[in-house]
C-alpha cells in the first residue's frame, strides 16, 4: 500500500508524538504506511500525490480565520503550503481527511465562511449524521447520533453549494462535510482516545479552549468521558482509500 501523509503543526513534541501514534493505531497503519510531515518545523517537502494513498491534516493550535497581521510567519507559511496542496487534491479528488484544523483549511479553500460564531469549548458533544452522512461510504455503519470530542475557536458558518454537510451539532451546525467524492473534514476529533484527550487538555491549558478557572472540572469530566465512535472513521478512511 502507498503511504498516507500526515500534515501536522503541533510544536509540542510530546503531543505531536501522541497524535502521530493515534493516527497509526486507529488507522491500523504500520509506521512506513504513514509519512508524518511536521510543518511546524519547516517547509513542506516535495509531495507527489501519485505516491500517496491520501492526505490527512491533523488538528492545530492555528486558527485560520484570525487576521493575517496576527498570524506568525510559520502559520502564514503553513497556510500557503496547504492551500497550494489543496489545489491539486481537489482538482484530482485525492482522498483527504482534515480533523478540526482541516475544516478551516479546506473550508477557506472552497470559499466557505469560517469564523468564531460556532466555536466550542473543549468537551464532549453529540454529533448527528445528516441524510447525506448516513449514506456516505466513509460513515457506513456509524450510529445516527454519537459522542465526539471537540475544542475549537472557529468553525464553518456557511458552506458553498459545492460542499455537502455530513454531520451537525447543536452548537456547531457543520461538524463534518465533504467536497467532491473523496475530500472530507471533521470539526470533531476522530483521532482522540480519552487518555490522549486529557493529555491534550492539560497541554493546552490557558490557550483559550476552556476557562482556566474551570480546569479542574474540565479535566475531571474528560477523565470520565468516552467517545469511541469517531475513531472508526480513521480506520474506514484507510480501508476505503489505501491503494
From TrEMBL:
InterPro entries membership: ChyE-like (IPR044992), Class_I_gatase-like (IPR029062), GATASE (IPR017926)
CDD domains hit by this protein: GATase1_1 (cd01741)
Glutamine amidotransferase domain span: 50-194
Keywords tagged on the record: Glutamine amidotransferase
Pfam families: GATase
Domain of life of the organism encoding this protein: Bacteria
Presence of keyword Ion transport: no
Protein name (Swiss-Prot/TrEMBL): Glutamine amidotransferase
Organism, scientific name: Flavimobilis rhizosphaerae
Amino acid at each position: 500500500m502507498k503511504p498516507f501523509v500526515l500534515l501536522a503543526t503541533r510544536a509540542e513534541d510530546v503531543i505531536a508524538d501522541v497524535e502521530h501514534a493515534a493516527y497509526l493505531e486507529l488507522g491500523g497503519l504500520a509506521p512506513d504506511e504513514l509519512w508524518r510531515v511536521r510543518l511546524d518545523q519547516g517547509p513542506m517537502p516535495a509531495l507527489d500525490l501519485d505516491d500517496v494513498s491520501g492526505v490527512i491534516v491533523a488538528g492545530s493550535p492555528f486558527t485560520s480565520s484570525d487576521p493575517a497581521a496576527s498570524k506568525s510567519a510559520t502559520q502564514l507559511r503553513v497556510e500557503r503550503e496547504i492551500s497550494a496542496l489543496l489545489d491539486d487534491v481537489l482538482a484530482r479528488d485525492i482522498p483527504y481527511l482534515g480533523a478540526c484544523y482541516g475544516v478551516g483549511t479546506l473550508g477557506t479553500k472552497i470559499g466557505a465562511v469560517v469564523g468564531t460564531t460556532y466555536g466550542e469549548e473543549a468537551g464532549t458533544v453529540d454529533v448527528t449524521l445528516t441524510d447525506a452522512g448516513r449514506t456516505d461510504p466513509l460513515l457506513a455503519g456509524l450510529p445516527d447520533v454519537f459522542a465526539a470530542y471537540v475544542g475549537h475557536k472557529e468553525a464553518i458558518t456557511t458552506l458553498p453549494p459545492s460542499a455537502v454537510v455530513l454531520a451537525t451539532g447543536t452548537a456547531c451546525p457543520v461538524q463534518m462535510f465533504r467536497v467532491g467524492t473523496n475530500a472530507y473534514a471533521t470539526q470533531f476529533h476522530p483521532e482522540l482516545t480519552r487518555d490522549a484527550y486529557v493529555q491534550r487538555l492539560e497541554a493546552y491549558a490557558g490557550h483559550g479552549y476552556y476557562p482556566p478557572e474551570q480546569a479542574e472540572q474540565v479535566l475531571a469530566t474528560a477523565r470520565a468521558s468516552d467517545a469511541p465512535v469517531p475513531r472508526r472513521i480513521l480506520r474506514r478512511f484507510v480501508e476505503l482509500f489505501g491503494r
